[in-house]
Specification:
The chain is of the alpha/beta class and about 200 residues long. It has a single domain, classed as P-loop containing nucleotide triphosphate hydrolases (Rossmann fold, 3-Layer(aba) Sandwich). It is about 40% helix and about 15% strand. The protein has seven helices and seven strands, in the order H-E-E-H-E-H-H-H-E-H-E-E-E-H. The strands form three sheets. It has a three-stranded parallel beta sheet, sandwiched between helices. A two-stranded antiparallel ribbon has the order 1-2. Strands 6-7 form a two-stranded antiparallel sheet. Strand 1 and strand 2 form a beta hairpin. Helix 4 packs across helix 5. It is globular and about 50 Å long.
Length: about 200
Amino acid sequence: MGASGAGKSTLLRCASGLERPSRGKVFKGSRELDAMDELELTQLRRLFVPQQPQLVPSLTAYENVAQASNATSPKARRAAVMEALRHVGLEEEAGQHPAGLSAELRKRVAIARTLLTGPRILFIDEPTDSLDHAGGFRIMDVLRALVEQAGHTVVMVTRDPAVAPCADRAVFLVGGRVVGKVDSPTADEVAAELARTP
């Protein structure tokens, strides 16, 4: 979290291999990203869910998610895609095209597509952006379930203090530097931290 221009999205993009840091190093476990080949970097980049879902308009939700599948048989692909859609509550919308889905449901499709890669970690940029209050909390419920029920780690950027209680930890940035951390944050704690940072 942090003000506009604090470096939140840049940090997320560096962590997911989409950008190279101008200083410092990024590691995945003990492996530096600069030492990874293009295939490894591509696999890491697939863990990034952008602020605006990049879905193919002519494809259904099912087909958009299936693009990330590397299953060798149609039966295995269908099972994997439907499982990913189930995780985000979209089984009933599998046949819908993006134009027929709300902004919230399009975000869910993008999350499901990322889940198909079998990630241990997901990087998500502004998951509640452009959603109303209720839609934002439904997306956070999906992400919380991925953490608690499926064992994923979710690293997200947000400007919304209201979603802070959904996180295990909030980290605050100013000018690209970490200036504070709060474990099991409340909305009030986050608001106070944001108010004291320049």
